[in-house]
Amino acid sequence: PLPQIELFKQGFNQKLQEGQKKLHQMWLDWSRKYSKESGDESSVEPEELEYLALLVARNISQQLQITCCKIVSAIQGLPSSLQEKVNQSLSTAEELHTAFLAANSFQDLSTSVLTQSQRKLAVIQKYMEELLDYLKNNIPLSWLVGPFCPREEGE
């Protein structure tokens, strides 16, 4: 069971690294395209950088939302305190994604969204670490042997 948790953690870290590589590649592709069009990278307009930063924020917040949603559905049966924390993480991820999706520029984002985003993400990370710590020490029986379902008569 403990090796399975470590495997999950490694998979999670790998997905995170893949996401970072994808974002880096998006930045490189955009930079190359712009360089070819303008011939001078030093003349990048602030609006274009702002647009790219918003695009990256949208993509990251969407991936975070998807991941939290999958975790919420996978932890049924765990203590309600953990389920509540993961549900809070999902709500926070949804709020961030909605805010970044609606914005056309950073001026469209409220000051609180910009200043609190880092704190909110740190709370999500803390909750996920608590979940992993719990799973290391308390693997649910249903995860080891599968869900138990009553059989219908005649099967």
TrEMBL record:
Superkingdom as given in the UniProt entry: Eukaryota
Main location: other
Location in or out of the cell: Lipid droplet
Lineage, uppermost ranks: Eukaryota, Metazoa, Chordata, Craniata, Vertebrata
Record keywords, A-Z: Lipid droplet
Coiled-coil features, chain-numbered ranges: none
Organism, scientific name: Todus mexicanus (Puerto Rican tody)
Name of the encoding gene: Plin3_2
Protein name: PLIN3 protein
Biological processes annotated in GO: lipid storage; positive regulation of triglyceride storage
